[in-house]
Structure formats: structure tokens, C-alpha cells
Amino acid sequence: MRRILVGIKRVIDYNVRVRVRPDGSGVVTDGVKMSANPFDSIALEEALRLRERGEADEVVAVSVGPAEAQQQLRDALAMGADRAILVKSDAAIEPPAVARVLLKLVERESPRLVLLGKQAIDDDCNQTGQMLAALWDRPQATSASKIEIQGETARVTREVDAGLETIEVDLPAVCTTDLRLNEPRYIKLPDIMKAKKKPLDTIELASLGVDASPVLKVLKLEPPPQRQKGVIVKDAAALVAALKQKGLA
Amino acid sequence: MNRVLIVAEHLDGKLNAAVAKCVACAGAIPESEIAIAVLARDGAAVAGAAAAIAGVARVLLVKNPANEPALAAVLGPQVAKLAEGYGFVLGPSTTFGKDLMPRVAALLGAPQVSDIMAVESATRFRRPVYAANAIATVEAPAGRQIVATVRVASFQAAADGSGPAPIETPMLDVKLPQSTRFVSVSAARSDRPDLQTATRVVSGGRALGSAENFKIIQALADKLGAAIGASRAAVDAGYAPNELQVGQTGKIIAPELYVAVGISGAIQHLTGIKDARTIVAINKDAEAPIFEVADYGLVGDLFSLVPEIEKLL
């Protein structure tokens, strides 16, 4: 079975304006819409396309998080994943521990490809995929904007600071997705009904024998310093005059 | 003594400007002693440039044809080997550092602090989360090795020092994987300043409407001696190449002057420009969020305003 494992993280929705709690203990989550990390939805879409192109037989969506993350896995099943696994963890879990959990699942599932978002839009860490690749001792291709599988290798175009880099990796490998890899499909109503019949297994994190206790302690969160609102200038000449006065033109 | 190892990013024999900013970050760690690792094919010029930076105690030059072009899977085990005895291993929060450092951290069994924007003590750091809508203060356990990436926009580059640091050439007995191979890179060569380190940047957004129209950004940038940037919308629409994207998932920049042309100012874009000294926004929509952060706003048609500004400069 040629399998693709896709990571799905439950995060505050992309469109929510995140606010820090007044006591600095975290961000406001009450009544806030939660969604799959957008980069993870791109990873899932790519997995589905690879399956549709005959490069994979099964797509397994995996989440490490609270029981509520079942919702994001149900969405993944509705999008087209064949089955899902929730590794249940009520406490916050850091990227190195997520990587160790994913490694356990990799050992069970033997995927030819693990597709993850390049970063989660909550902690913005950009670590998990690379860490999994290192622990698994397999290649990594991060920030992918194009993935082509040719036999036992994948040719991946990566978005890098200089432009676009193409590398070739032997499979199995870990690939993390950038924004322009694809545009995830919309979930259709009948698929939501069908998804209810697809298998969603829940595993207790503790049963995997992975030490998931946090190493870094978040002491506090603060809102960022606000920029002073500036002035509206009346025309191009006024703008240029202001810039010249500041020595910027 | 806090021993800090910085992994040098370099291309075509030139040290990336982000490295001197990593040195500044390392210098903010109390009682730090700073070494820079240069993994290269030849690397003499890069090592020389690294050794010249003030505050650098030594440069470790590892020559190997496999080290260029840089591949995280190849560099990772070498950096992990070099990191023995170092309390901190730093890299720039560029696509190079983002790719490599977590791999190093996992090999070392160390936690990673991503995007350090300020050092409060040898164990306490500040970093942005939620697209910089919140700043977290994180504490790492004392006495444990820490891997980190440095948010380069938050630090002023360390200057060159009075005399070069010694360059050592350690021999590494590390097995390098063959399972990751470089194929090609398509990079636009240009005479413009580098977006990440430019003092002036002119960026265009979706309102430009086409790749052809994006040229008016180039004309203004030429006049200002500025680098060119773009919003995600402009890159997605194909008006500008991906390497010009500024924002949460693109480049985080801190120029003296940032001119946003036809950019509405999504949160994810603002994340990339929060540290700019002066922000100018030109947009026909007076309600656009970009005006909330702009020092100077100009409301109107960019297609007439931009050429007008260019003539007045």
C-alpha cells in the first residue's frame, strides 16, 4: 500500500484577528472559530491530487491535539482523506514532541510520503517536518511549491529566498507545503455525510510512550507594540516634501 | 561562559548579511563566546568575511564539495557534530536557516526557539507568534543546549572588528546522506539591493493589475535606489516572483523606508513590515488597513500618483 500521511493541526482560523488575553496568559479562544492550519489543508489537497494521479493508494490524515481536533479530521475526511488518526493530547505539545509522535505513526503506517504544512499559523514555529525527517533519518523538502513523484523519488520545487530551488529526494521523505503548491478544494455537503462513515481512530498520546512534556515555558504573551497612526498627505508633492525632510528621498 | 555557534549562510562565495545580525543576537546573550561555522565547497572568502565581524572568536571552516549548494540533510549532521560543547546553535530565520536548524535541533535532541527577536537572558527570549499579533516570552531550561533561529529584522548587523578571528579547519568524520540531491535554482539576478537587507523597499500589490503594470514599481524603486517587494496577492496573481513576497510566510523586513503601492494591508502582510522605520502607503481605498500603520498615506489612483512622485524625486 502506497500511503501518504498528512498532518492536520487545529488552529485559530486564518481570518480571526487574534487578541492577547489581558493577563498575558494566552490568546482569546472563547467563541473563536477554529480551523485546520491552512498550510495543512494545502498538504492534504496535494496528497489527494497525488492519489488521483495514481501516485498513492491511501491518504491518512493525522492530528495531534485535543478531542476537538476530531472536527478538523472530519473535515479532512470530507475533503477526501481515506481515514484519520487523532493522537489525543489535552496539554499543549511542542514541535519536537509532535515529531516524535509522528515518527511512531510513521513506524506503524510505513508511508512513502509525509506531507505537512511548513508552519502552523499559531506558533509560527516551522519545525515539525524537519524534525520528523531528522528523527526518521530521511530526506526533507520544505516550502514546496511543486511536487512530482517519479518512481521512487520525488522532485520538489521549493520557495527559497533566492527564488525557486528544485531538489530530488529518495522516498520515503517528508515534504512541507508552501502557499502556492495548490488551492485546496471546497468540501461538498454530500461528502460531509460520507465522511461520517470513514474511520477515525483515537489514540491516547500516553499510550505511544513518547515524552511530550513541554521543554520551553511560555512565560507570557503580550500584544505587539502598536505603530502610531500617521498622516494623510494631500498630494504627491506633499509626500515627496515630507520624505525629503526626513532624508528618505 | 556561553558558547554560541552560528551557522553561516552564503551564496556564490559571499557571506549573507543575515550572519552579522545573528552575531548581534549572539552578542546579546550574556558572557557569550561566538564561533561561526562555514560549511562550503571552498569557503575561504566566506570564512574571511565571517572572521572579520566584531565579536567573533573563531571561524570553523568545513570544506566539502557536498556542502554546496546547501542541503539541510547534508549540512545537518555536520552542524550537529560541530555543535558539541556549544550551549547555543543559531542560524538566520531565512529559508536557509528555517530548513536547516530544526533538523539540527532534532539531531541534537534540543528544543528550538524560532525567530528570536530579543534576548532577555541566557535562557529567556522573545519571539513573535500568531503572525506577530502576539509576542511570547519563552524560557528555556538552564544548562540545556538550545537551537534557535534569529529574526534578522530585529537586529542591527554587527560591524567588522579591528582584527580577524582565527579560522580553524576541523575534520569531521560524519557520514553524509546521498538521498537528497540538488537539481537547480532559478534566481533572478539583479543589480537591485537585496530585499531582505535593503534600506529602502517599494512593494506592489494586487491593485497593480498585471505583471506589465508592475513595472511602474520598478521605475519608482530605481529612482529611490530601493529593493522591490510584493504582497502575497500580487505574487499569487503572477505579477511578481515568489522571492519578492513580504509577509508572515514571505520575507520579514526592516527597511528605513517602505513604500506600499496598491497594497490593502492584510494582517499577514503587515507582519512583514512592522519594523520598517517609515511606511508610506498609496492606495485608492481610504479605508484600507495599510493606512492604520502608514506614517504617510496618499489616497488616490496609483497609476497617476506613482509616476508623479517619481518625477518629483
Biggest sheet features of chain B: 7 strands, parallel
The helix/strand series of chain A, from N terminus to C terminus, equals EEEHEHEHEHEEEEHEEEH
What form of chain B results from the Cα inertia axes? Answer: globular
- Low-confidence parts of chain B: none
What's the structural blueprint in terms of helices and strands?
The complex is a heterodimer of chains A (249) and B (313).
Chain A (H helix, E strand, L loop, with lengths): L2 E5 L2 E3 L21 E3 L1 H15 L5 E8 L4 H10 L3 E6 L6 H15 L3 E5 L10 H9 L3 E11 L2 E8 L2 E8 L2 E5 L11 H7 L4 E5 L12 E6 L8 E2 L3 H10 L4
Parallel strand pairs in A: 1-4, 1-6, 4-5, 5-11, 6-10, 7-10
Antiparallel strand pairs in A: 2-3, 7-8, 8-9
Chain B lengths: L1 E6 L2 E2 L2 E2 L2 H10 L4 E9 L3 H8 L4 E8 L8 H11 L5 E5 L2 H14 L3 E5 L1 E2 L4 E6 L4 E6 L6 E5 L16 E2 L11 E8 L12 E5 L10 H10 L2 E4 L1 H5 L20 E5 L5 H4 L7 E6 L6 H4 L2 E4 L2 H11 L1
Parallel strand pairs in B: 1-4, 1-6, 4-5, 5-12, 6-11, 7-11, 14-15, 14-16, 16-17, 17-18
Antiparallel strand pairs in B: 2-3, 8-9, 9-10
Helix pairs in contact in B: 3-4, 5-9
Give a written overview of the molecule:
The complex is a heterodimer of chains A (249) and B (313). Chain A is α/β, with parallel strands linked by helices and 249 residues long. Chain A has a nine-stranded mixed beta sheet with strand order 9-8-7-10-6-1-4-5-11, sandwiched between helices. Chain A has a two-stranded antiparallel ribbon with strand order 2-3. Helix content of chain A is 27%, strand content 30%. The N and C termini of chain A lie far apart (62 Å). Chain B has 313 residues and is an alpha/beta fold. In chain B, the strands form four sheets. Chain B has a seven-stranded parallel beta sheet, sandwiched between helices. In chain B, strand 14, helix 5 and strand 15 form a beta-alpha-beta unit. The relative contact order of chain B is 0.12. Classes of the chains: A alpha/beta (249), B alpha/beta (313). The interface between A and B is large, with 80 and 85 residues.
